Amino acid sequence: MSKAIIVLMFAIALTSCEGMIEPHGYVYDKTDRMPIDSVEAILILETNDTIRLEDSKGMRIRSFSNDSGYFTVSSGLIGMATGYPGYSVLLIKNGYKPLDIKKTGDSIFLEKK
């Protein structure tokens, strides 16, 4: 087998090891069970014993909940050759206690300060 074919196969294997993390959920007030809009959702990636709050361009990976309390935050394509990275989502809103969650996709309740 020629060296060019081996290099090509190796390059394809490395580039195909990408994936995306897109946690999402609905944020509600813990007391009155009403949806909370404008909650900042910050994706925290835990890769190679490093906690990343920014993407490869130095931008914070975040989004905000809408009027229904729904949020989704995307990592964009990230390398997963060494495995699926751990992650959490930090939810922040003025007047509420910050909440760091590991599981999303369900209803999330924030407690007022």
Q: Can you give a write-up of this model?
A:
This protein is mostly beta strands and 113 residues long. It has a single domain (3-110), classed as Sandwich (Immunoglobulin-like). The chain is 12% helix and 36% strand. The chain has 1 helix and 10 strands. It has one helix spanning 3-15; strands spanning 18-19, 24-29, 40-47, 50-52, 62-64, 70-72, 78-79, 86-92, 99-101, 107-110. It is elongated.
Number of helices: 1
CATH architectural grouping: Sandwich
Largest sheet: number of strands, sense, barrel closure? 5 strands, antiparallel
Terminal-residue CA separation: 66 Å
Can you give me a brief rundown of this structure?
This protein has about 110 residues and is mostly beta strands.
